[in-house]
Amino acid sequence: MTPMTTEQVAEFLSVKVERVRRLARENLLIAKDHDENGQPIFDKDDVEKYKELAKRLGGI
């Protein structure tokens, strides 16, 4: 597993950090863990799969 912070995911997906947090809250992007501040940590493979699926469905 290659961990990604919320900020890294936002940059990778070209969206705002708030959007990534909402995706996590809505279980559309599953966090694998949380950091010491309670922020979600994501697996890079899951983020890449989400991006591919979002593209197929018309965008993020």
TrEMBL record:
InterPro entries from the UniProt entry: DNA-bd_dom_put_sf, HTH_17
Signal peptide: none
Domain of life: Bacteria
Domain Helix-turn-helix positions: 4-52
SUPFAM superfamilies: Putative DNA-binding domain
Transmembrane regions: none
Annotated Pfam families: HTH_17
Protein name: Helix-turn-helix domain-containing protein
